[in-house]
Design a protein that fits this description.
Elements (H helix, E strand, L loop, with lengths): L1 H7 L7 E5 L19 H4 L7 E7 L6 E9 L2 E7 L4 E9 L2 E8 L17 E5 L7 E3 L5 E13 L2 E11 L4 E7 L3 E9 L2 E11 L3 E5 L9
Antiparallel strand pairs: 1-14, 2-3, 2-13, 3-4, 4-5, 5-6, 6-7, 8-9, 9-10, 10-11, 11-12, 12-13
Length: 220
């Protein structure tokens, strides 16, 4: 539990973030039993100017919101704003894998980090998208696809999702991916404690503007 809390806790810094978005469109419920075989790209689409807001349950740091900053080829850079800090996350889809290349904290500026190199990336999702597909995380934990037709509920709607479970020593982490939407839900369970992050809304054609504090130093 302490390790999970550390993922959310950080010093809070002030930054003014404004956005301009198109009218909110509520995602529609996706249809189950689709005939085509799913791919990682189906479940984690790279779309420009997308804003996603997530509701948090069970922990004050569980809520967050994301903006797409950059896309180039097989990589996407997402700004992840939490109550504790703002992160720049670099994802890559390659060889049938969704990889988290890097996650930089205190990202209160705008910089293209897509060329970041990291050989110890974490694999979040892996093909074939079918029950039983399993792999090992960068921390040596077991991660596997447990259900390709999981029924889930979020404030944004009800979906049929692909469920991915990560097994820790004393906890389980459930991640849910929905075709054409992406990562919509996370559930962390340890003992009698449950923490959830659920997609609340998604907006397209959303542009982010930031007002940063600039520190000027004068050297004599």
């Amino acid at each position: 539990m302490k390790k999970w809390k550390m993922l959310f806790m950080a010093a809070i810094s002030s930054v003014l973030i404004l956005s301009s978005c198109a009218k909110t469109t509520k995602p529609t419920e996706n249809k189950p039993n689709e005939p085509t075989k799913l791919t990682v790209k189906d479940l984690f689409p790279f779309n420009e100017n997308v804003y996603m807001k997530y509701q948090g349950i069970g922990n004050e740091f569980a809520e967050h919101q994301t903006y797409v900053d950059y896309i180039d080829g097989d990589r996407i850079q997402i700004r992840d704003i939490t109550p504790g800090t703002t992160l720049a996350k670099i994802y890559e889809i390659k060889n049938g894998e969704l990889r988290l290349i890097s996650s930089r904290e205190e990202y209160y500026y705008r910089e293209n980090l897509l060329n970041t190199q990291n050989t110890s990336y974490d694999v979040l999702l892996k093909e074939p998208i079918e029950n039983g597909t399993s792999w090992t995380t960068k921390d040596g934990l077991k991660r596997y696809i447990s259900n390709t037709q999981a029924k889930i509920s979020t404030p944004s709607g009800e979906y049929t999702a692909v469920e991915v479970i990560t097994e820790g020593n004393d906890y389980k982490l459930y991640d849910y991916y929905v075709k054409e939407l992406g990562h919509v839900k996370t559930v962390f369970k340890t003992g009698s404690t449950t923490i959830e992050t659920n997609l609340e809304k998604i907006e397209k054609k959303c542009f982010l503007y930031s007002n940063y504090k600039i520190l000027l130093s004068r050297f004599q």
